[in-house]
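Backbones bend. To wit:
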Amino acid sequence: MAVIFYLSGSGNSLYAAQQIAGKLEACRLETIGSYLREPYAVKDEVVGIVCPVYCFALPPVVAQFLAKLKAKPSYTFGVVTMGGNQGRALKQMSEALAAQGITLQYAQTVVMPDNFFGIPLEKREKLIEAAEPTIIQIAQDIALAKRDVTAVKEAYLWKLFGTSASWWYLKNRLNFENMTVDAAKCVGCNICADICQMENITMVAGKPTFGNNCANCLGCVHWCPQSAISAGKLTLDNSKRYVHPKINLPMMKGDK
């Protein structure tokens, strides 16, 4: 039996997790948010973690998940999707797993469209196309239980800019954590609440309200059909919103 725990806002990491799961026998997908709400002793022999890179590191919610993960797998893998540089994400993952008595045996990165910066459509398409053979190779490697942790390292850009400085800029300059909704644009479709893997969004009087358990995945921003949701100064119109073309809303709702 196998399980892949994932975090995904735009669908990049979910797509990678799906492709890997398709190569494994009896593999299920579970959101990291779901595990955090109800932690349990994982019995699966194969455990995978697939998530994006935030500010040259793991998303804070993924770090929280790893600190609570209880498992004794015979094979563990980690895959991170990123806009261009993993920083120290995989090294951080390896260290966090080791603290739980789990050895990371395979680790790899996949460059995919960034969901924070407004990337032109043509570039997005090229990145998605280029990522496909990488994902296929990763899935094949994992299916064969390949051991390879050469990607577990600290990249130069992480040392140059630093995770703390990046988060400081997002929080203090862009007011990134202040999620707001334009009531005039919002039509109360409930999509944002449905796809929120942290169950951080509730609908009140037909409009979304945001709690204090946000994973900063920007899923609600990118999946909103009306471009009604903003993260601080980050407001994306239809031309800048991005979701993976092979991921749909039912997939995103999945096992929240």
